[in-house]
Amino acid sequence: MADFCMPSLGADMRTGTLVDWKVKQGDRLKRGDIIADVETDKGIMEIEIFMDGVVEELLLETGTKVPVGTVMAKIHTEETVKNEVVPVTSSAPSIPAPKEISQEVSQSTPAPAIAKSERLRVSPLARKLATELGVDLTTVKGTGADGAIEKADIERAATLQKQPVSAPSPTVMPPAEKPAAKSTSTSDFQSGMRRAIAAAMSLANRDIPHYYLETRIDMSHPLQWLEAENQRRSIKDRILPVVLLIKAVAKSLVDVPELNGYWVDDHLQVQEGIHIGFAISLRQGGLVTPAIHHADLKNLDELMTAMRDLIARTRSGHLRSSELSDATITLTNLGDIGVEKVYGVIYPPQVAIIGFGKIAEQPWAEHGMVGARPVVTATIAGDHRATDGMVGAKFLQALNAHLQAVEAL
């Protein structure tokens, strides 16, 4: 019997709220299947399972706030080792939750197994409001995604519940939703997101001794090659300059693997897979850095497709847990909004973050001649516990070399 535990989706995550089980007792699972939806400060995430097996028991009710590492379900596997606990979590190392949080649901677990009957999709906020207002969730029709019951649905049901019963009576139309409700929800989300970012960045600045390096890279040849390549393509198949940067970073990590890993238990753990966390801003505010898996093995077209898909799913709230937990390094690009240089803060337990500014014409001296060239400033922030400036310098050197040999990307 193996334990499926609440995974850590980053250094800033301490708890998550179980929104919905995607499986029931007796279901057969294979590696990569979605087992549950969990709400964090960064939104609702699809949680994957990382082994094959059969659901033996679901231990928590939906709506439960669950600390990282808490057992949520029992999975029967053929590989289960006798008397050994095998936590089913994501592949990246997790950050231990504070002791005062780890006991938060100890009194509520194990809970009775969830019944096999169909479950309601209810947001945690809506469930709490329903309890406060005495609204029976089984009588409420959800208007959210996939029929999920949201806060506005509960408010509407509570209003109708208070209407006096008389016959005959005209049809009571649902009251118009108050604009303030949506604004409050967005405000709550932004507040939660900022708290999550603050927690991670405070940890990073407190525990990680950063070093910073920068270099200017002549983008004349890469952009000329890209322009010629895009002219042969339809508009929808064209490649953006940032894709060249992503692939060049991935290939540079093959050359300098010390930057592709985690600092855990006071030593560097270099990772084989190169999973680049790509910083994506959200329309409602905040930042998420999901991973582009195996970026070094993807060609430019595959990277372009993966990036577009990741941006769309990040902004629509359909990320998988592995995409938030597996990043081995982070890339941030603020050039599209005019920033010339960006110095990032490392996201623990990663050991480096790469930054790119805008590609802009700058003076460039070569062979005794000065002219204007399209130039990008690339920066690296490294963890001085794991590497030093020499390693960072080798990475930036490799990055420049790969961009100048753009045909080989």
TrEMBL record:
Residues 160-169 have a biased composition (Polar residues). Keywords: Acyltransferase, Lipoyl, Transferase. Its EC number is 2.3.1.-. It is an enzyme of class 2 (transferase). This is Dihydrolipoamide acetyltransferase component of pyruvate dehydrogenase complex. Its cofactor is (R)-lipoate. CDD domains: lipoyl_domain. Belongs to the 2-oxoacid dehydrogenase family. Residues 89-112, 160-189 are annotated as: Disordered. The keyword Acyltransferase applies. It comes from the Bacteria. Residues 1-76 form the Lipoyl-binding domain. Residues 121-158 form the Peripheral subunit-binding (PSBD) domain. It comes from Pseudanabaena mucicola FACHB-723.
